[in-house]
Design a protein that fits this description.
The protein has helices spanning about 10-45, 60-70, 70-75, 85-95, 135-170, 180-205, and strands at about 45-50, 55-60, 105-110, 115-125, 130-135. It is α+β, with helices and mostly antiparallel strands. The chain has a five-stranded antiparallel beta sheet, sandwiched between helices. Helix 5 runs antiparallel to helix 6. The chain starts with 7 loop residues before the first helix and ends with a helix.
Length: about 210
């Protein structure tokens, strides 16, 4: 409560009360912004770990906890290299600290059962770093399937093409097959052409 009267003390206490009100308002706004930031970070589908200048865990979002099986109350202050016990990660961290370009990140297999992660470090105001973990297991599996599929289709198409080309060479040589041999060659060429047509139709169906 402000003292009665118009003396200097009342002015001092009045100014102090106004300052406290402004501080409370600023603190409330800062708290609201921090809560919004934390909620937004929790909503990110990637794992996020905040590291201090000594590469110790300061904070992580829910996804990172699930990916690595860690909990902030137990692992806060833990050196990140104690979680990532891989020489390749230590080398990546060392290059990052020395300022070398590391935009591409690092691919690591983590967890049980193992899943493939893209790991990236980003600087934070020269006072630490953000470690981002993106689960790319499905992307890697899809890419592997795509490569295998293309290789299989190429092999399946090469066989009928080779057969047809071989028969065409014989049919166009100086002494082409006649009679039953010619009919047999043409029938086999027709079978292989049908096989190619079915493969192409399957590819078009898959594309759709």
């Amino acid at each position: 409560e402000l003292p009665d009267g118009d003396d200097a003390w009342r002015e001092v206490f009045s100014a102090q009360r106004q300052l406290q009100k402004e501080n409370r308002r600023d603190l409330a706004q800062l708290t609201m912004r921090l809560e919004r930031f934390l909620k937004a970070t929790q909503a990110i589908p990637d794992g996020v770990i905040l590291l201090d200048a000594d590469d110790r865990i300061e904070w992580h979002n829910r996804v990172a906890g699930e990916q690595l099986g860690i909990a902030l109350e137990d692992d806060q202050g833990t050196l990140i290299v104690h979680l990532f016990r891989y020489p390749v990660f230590r080398s990546y961290l060392r290059r990052f600290r020395s300022g070398e370009a590391t935009e591409d990140g690092l691919s690591l297999e983590l967890g049980t059962p193992p899943r493939q992660f893209l790991v990236r470090l980003l600087p934070v105001a020269n006072q630490g770093s953000l470690l981002l973990l993106r689960d790319v297991t499905d992307m890697v599996r899809t890419e592997r399937m795509r490569v295998d599929f293309v290789a299989n289709v190429s092999h399946e198409l090469r066989t009928p093409v080779t057969v047809i080309s071989g028969f065409l060479e014989q049919m166009t040589c100086d002494e082409p097959p006649q009679g039953e041999d010619a009919k047999r060659f043409l029938a086999m060429m027709s079978d292989q052409a049908g096989r190619m047509r079915r493969l192409i139709e399957d590819l078009l169906t898959l594309s759709r």
